[in-house]
Amino acid sequence: MQDRKPLVAVGALVLTGVLAACGNGSSSGSAQSGSGSPTNATKDTFCQSFNDIGSGTTPKEAADTLSKVGTPSGIDSSARRGFVLLVDRLQQLPDKTNEGDITQMARGLTGQDQADVTAFVTFYAQECQGLPTDASS
To answer: What pTM was computed for the model?
Structure first.
């Protein structure tokens, strides 16, 4: 059985990377739930949505950006659930989020949630960062 601790750590790093771009500004408006996000985003639009999260972006604004774009149709169900979980967790973070909040959020994931976030992180990395899959090695 595979040890999930390194994968959860990678997931936490991705969350930290996404949220590191989030600043301390105040949020306006309300983000929709990740489960209502589109499932037909193009790869370019999906990947760009993460790049569009800037230093003045609050976690709620990041969640709104990601949920408006959604995920590509080729994402598997576990990775999609991980995306939804990420968006929903971003909505719950305070505007002035710090690294400790992010770490605590990542540690709060259990069981299937960990597996789903890991699946999403893997999908994102393969699609947007050009990392090789296990099958290509």
So the answer is: 0.72
